Amino acid sequence: MSRGRIAPEDSVEDAAIKLAIPDMTRPEEVHMKSLVILSRLAELGDLSNPSGTIRHKRILMHADELGLYGDKPWKLYNLICDEDMEKMSALVSGCHHHIGITAGPLSRAIKAGWAHGFFDVDDVVRQVQDRIPGYKKILPDLPAKPGFGPSSAPGSALTPQ
Predict the structure, then answer these.
(1) Which pLDDT score is estimated for 7?
(2) What does pLDDT average to over the chain?
(3) Is a pLDDT exceeding 60 seen at residue 32?
(4) What is the pLDDT averaged over residues 90-119?
(5) Which residue among 20, 103, 142, 153 is buried most deeply as judged by most CB within 10 Å?
(6) Structure confidence at residue 140 as a pLDDT band (50, 70, 90)
């Protein structure tokens, strides 16, 4: 886990900029694609408390805890989440709340540039949807996989006959 770059007094904009900098010894080098993605992520916010006023900064604080700096937010959004902001928000919140994924596999997947072999993105999103009600409202229902969730119950269309 990271020690963190975001200070309590930072604005949402300052927090996003701090995360988009790959190396704090050279703060003039901002990864612009990550800055755009982090701004959009903050706009969506942390949906574990959708009515909370701090939710926009909290999701960036979760990203800070995970060490999502420099180009890592862009890679997570582009390569792991298939450019789906809601999935990205669910993965970051899932890591923070230890729902379906932890920081280690997420970090290794970002480094590799894909999730296959590290975790199943849709399974993590489903678990976050089930455990954090705010995510159920914004994420579409993903198709269920055999053996996962209520659709695999006896008598369902996915149960082998």
Answers:
(1) 94
(2) 83
(3) yes
(4) 92
(5) 20
(6) low
CA–CA gap between residue 87 and residue 89 (Å, rounded): 5
**CB contact set of 86 (below 8 Å; sequence gap of 6+):** 44, 135, 138, 139
What pLDDT shows up at residue 77? Answer: 96
Write the CB contacts of 132 (distance below 8 Å, at least 6 apart in sequence).
Answer: 47, 48, 93, 97, 99
Contact 112, 102 (CB under 8 A): no
3-state secondary structure of 58: helix
Query: Which among 61, 45, 87, 57 has a CA at the least distance from the CA of 4?
Result: 61
Contacts of 99 (CB under 8 A, 6+ apart): 93, 124, 127, 128, 131, 132
Range list of β-strands (E), the chain: none
